[in-house]
Amino acid sequence: MAIFKQEMSNSKQNETIIGSSVKVEGTFVGEGNVIIEGQLQGNLKTKHNINVGPSAKLKANIEGQDVYIAGTLHGNVKALGKLQMTSTAKIVGNVEAAALNVETGAILNGKCNMLAETTLPEKPEKK
Amino acid sequence: MYTYIVEAEINSKKFENELARIEARLIELEVAGRIEKLTILKSLPETIKDAVRDHAETIVLIGTDKLINSAISTLAEFKATIGIIPLGEPTLIAESLGIPYGLTACDTLSARITTSLDLGKINNRYFLSTVHVPDCRTLTLDCDNQFKVSTITPATIDITNFGETSNPHDGRLEVIVKPEVQKSFFGFMKPRHFDRRSVFPFKKLTIKSTGDCLPIVSDGETIIKTPATIEVAPKKVRIIVGKKRSFR
Fold this sequence. Notes:
heterodimer; A: mainly beta; 13-stranded parallel beta sheet; globular; B: alpha+beta; Rossmann fold; 5 helices; 16 strands; elongated
C-alpha cells in the first residue's frame, strides 16, 4: 500500500498540465505524463502518456507512449503504445501507433501506420 | 557544533517560557550550542557569517518562515547544515519539511535526518519555497529557452520548489498557473471554465511582461520587478527534516 502511495505521488510530481487558461508555443519535452486542455503550437515529446482533453486545440506534432485524444489536433501523432481517439477527437495529420482504438464520431484526415508492422524486420524471401 | 539563531520577534516575553523549555531540552538531548538572539541592531547575515567563522557545523533557526526566508540566501553560500525550530506564525516551511512546532522540534533536530534540497534563484537571490506573481495578465514565461507560456485569462502564478506537485530533489522547479475563476451573479448557472491550473517543470525560466513592470513576491516578502530570471540551484543546502515531510 505504501509503495502504491509513493508511486502515485511520484507520478503526480512529474506530471505536466497545460490547462485551458494557457497557450504554449515551442518544443516541449516532458519528463512524465502530459495532460493538455489548452492550446499548444510546436512539438511535444514524452516517454510517458499524453492526454489531450476535449477543449484542447493543438497545432503540433506529438509523440508519447499511450496517447488519448478527445480534442482537436493539426499535426502528426506517434504513439509508441496505444492511440485512443474518442468521439470528440479530430486529427488532421498522420498517425502512427502500435495499437489503435477509434470511437464512432472521431475524425481522422491523414495516413495511418501501425508501428508493430513497420518496425518488424523484413522476412528473407524463400528461394 | 551547533549555533542557534533566535528571530527578533520571538525574542519577547510571549515566547520566554517556550524558549527556556527549548534550551533545557537541547541540553538534555546533548545538542546545545551558542544561542544568538537577533535584535534590530544585530544583522542576520553577519550573525550567520560569524557562526560559520566560529566553525558552526549546524545553524539552527528558531522562529517563523520570515527568518528562514531572510537567512536562506546567506546560508546557501556556506556548507553548514540547517536546522529549524518553528516558533510563532507562520511556520509553513517547517510544516512542509515535517518539523513539528516548538519544543518537539528539538527531538527532530536530535534525530538528525538530513537531506540536500534544491533552491530556487531569482535574479541572483535564493529562495526556498515559493515565488508568487499576483497579477500576470501581460506576462510571458520563457521556459528552458524551449517553449513559451502565455496566459489567455487572468491568472496568478506560483513557482514552487516543494509542495503537492514539486519535489525539491529533482533538480527542477515547477511553475503553476492558477486561473482566476470569474464570479458573476448568474455564475452558478454557467459551466465553470478556466479553473484548471497548469503545471510545468523547468530548470530556467524568464518572466517578461509586455506592459508595465509587475511585482514578483519571493518567499512571501521580497518584492522583485519583472523582467526576472528564475533558475534552480540543485542540492544547494543541507537541511534537517522530519519524518512527516511532504516529499521523499
